[in-house]
Amino acid sequence: MKIFSGKKFEVHIDKVKLPNGYERELEFVKHRGSVVIIPKINNEIILIRQFRPVIDKWIYELPAGTIEEGEDPLNTANRELIEEIGYEAGKMKEIISFYASPGITTEYMRLYLAEDLRYVGAKPEPYEIIEPIRLSIEEAIKMIRERKIEDAKTIIGIFTLKELLE
């Protein structure tokens, strides 16, 4: 049963039957899915420093966004890359995908590597407070180890890229 419907997701409470026959009430967020982009220029990547009001703090993240109704995920990745950091990608390739938090949401995230970047100017949404930051992969890994990067999709993206480059 849907109890709330917003622009990006719905909240449901449903009774489900588990594979062992046990029935339980389940609360979850139904989500269209999202994309995460690793913008790579030579040996550097671009992160964003963004204020997140839900946790009331600034955090470092890879550019990302929700897939619009009926939108192709690759188009979402290209759109978000321009909106958040102002770059257009000559090459965009999906490298991994994963569930954000399968215990509470259906959100499925697709991680893209964006290369051959050309600056065209950022177009952030009015509610997005974003500062792009360019740094080496090694610097980003150091920030993860120092707990300066706390965002799961960003940590997954950086370590996936590091593995691809080795």
TrEMBL record:
Nudix hydrolase domain sequence ranges: 29-157
Keyword Ubl conjugation attributed: no
Signal peptide: none
Gene3D superfamilies in the cross-refs: Nucleoside Triphosphate Pyrophosphohydrolase (3.90.79.10)
Pfam families documented for this protein: NUDIX
PROSITE patterns: NUDIX, NUDIX_BOX
UniProt keyword annotations, A-Z: Hydrolase
Highest taxon of source: Archaea
Presence of keyword Glycoprotein: no
GO-annotated biological processes: nucleoside phosphate metabolic process; ribose phosphate metabolic process
InterPro entries named in the record: NUDIX_hydrolase-like_dom_sf, NUDIX_hydrolase_CS, NUDIX_hydrolase_dom
Cofactor(s) the protein needs: Mg(2+)
GO molecular function: hydrolase activity
PANTHER family: NUDIX HYDROLASE DOMAIN-CONTAINING PROTEIN (PTHR11839:SF18), UDP/ADP-SUGAR PYROPHOSPHATASE (PTHR11839)
Identification of the protein by name: Nudix hydrolase domain-containing protein
Lineage: Archaea, Thermoproteota, Thermoprotei, Sulfolobales, Sulfolobaceae
